[in-house]
Specification:
single chain; 5 helices; 280 residues; globular; eleven-stranded mixed beta sheet
Length: 280
């Protein structure tokens, strides 16, 4: 099932995508989509529901896919051709960093940080943990996945690379965490290593890729992280980006106020973000 949360005049409504593409309200059946509901039987009341019988939600103002995303783990240089365009060697182990900004809706604007000159785009496959994972094997890692989503790992490259320290400060500015529009349940994604990805800026294709070219698979990432960090329901992992980021272009190109970014992953939906200037 494809789940989402939609902002309406009456507040945020949990919904699901019906076969005809309409959104159907789950209000009255579940209170919300949260880390608890995806992990601990909170979606059981939906068993047997016929989505076409439920009230239609006509709004398309998507909120973040869960009400309480606590942690966004990110994997760097996880596509060999992206590492090459960045001029960096392939890692021996998954490179881990964090996004500590709040998750935003799929179509919420990207706000250029104050003083930014190098805000960049990165289409990525997101993985949402649905069962506690501690020291799990590669063979069983996908059993801990609730579902998948689209993420734009928006990045300020000067903050990330030129100002010392860890990457987190270039990854965590306000509005840098678009997640969604949907949380697509794991049963609808039989092979997370066979998903096409794209990203356009102002209608021009910038990124084209497929998750088959990941250096470390989703299962390998989950297994590796679980050696060091206990992954909990509601945790999100952003699994890396294919080539075509602005930093890798010659000459480099970065986002400016007035730009429009559109991106998607096959079967997981699309995002569209307007880029806006910083305002005090």
């Amino acid at each position: 099932m494809k789940f989402c949360r939609v902002r309406t005049a009456d507040g945020i409504v949990p919904a699901a995508v019906a076969a005809d593409g309409t959104l159907r309200s789950l209000a009255g059946h579940i209170a919300d989509l949260s880390s608890h509901s995806i992990a601990y039987g909170g979606l059981a009341p939906l068993d047997g529901l016929v989505l076409s019988d439920l009230p239609e939600v006509t709004d398309r103002d998507y909120a973040p896919i869960l009400s309480d995303i606590r942690r966004i783990f990110c994997i760097g240089l996880n596509y060999s051709d992206h590492a090459a365009e960045a001029g960096m060697a392939l890692p021996d182990f998954p490179i881990l960093f964090m996004k500590v900004c709040p998750a935003t809706g799929a179509n919420d604007p990207i706000i250029l940080p104050k003083g930014s000159e190098k805000t960049d785009w990165e289409v990525e496959l997101g993985v949402v943990i649905g069962a506690r994972a501690q020291h799990v094997s590669v063979e069983t890692a996908l059993n801990h996945v609730a579902g998948y989503c689209v993420i734009n790992d928006v990045s300020e490259r000067a903050f990330q690379i030129e100002r010392g320290g860890q990457w987190v400060k270039g990854k965590s500015c306000d509005s840098f965490g678009p997640v969604g529009p949907w949380l697509v349940s794991a049963d609808e994604v039989p092979d997370p290593q066979a998903l096409d990805m794209f990203l356009d800026v102002n209608g021009e294709r910038r990124q084209t890729g497929n998750t088959s070219t990941m250096v470390f698979s989703v299962a390998e990432i989950i297994s590796h992280l679980s050696e060091y960090i206990t992954l909990e329901p509601g945790d999100v992992i952003s699994t890396g980006t294919p080539p075509g980021v602005g930093m890798g272009m010659k000459p480099q190109q970065f986002l400016r106020a007035g730009d429009t970014v559109r991106l998607g992953v096959s079967g997981l939906g699309e995002q569209t973000q307007a880029v806006r200037a910083w305002e005090t």
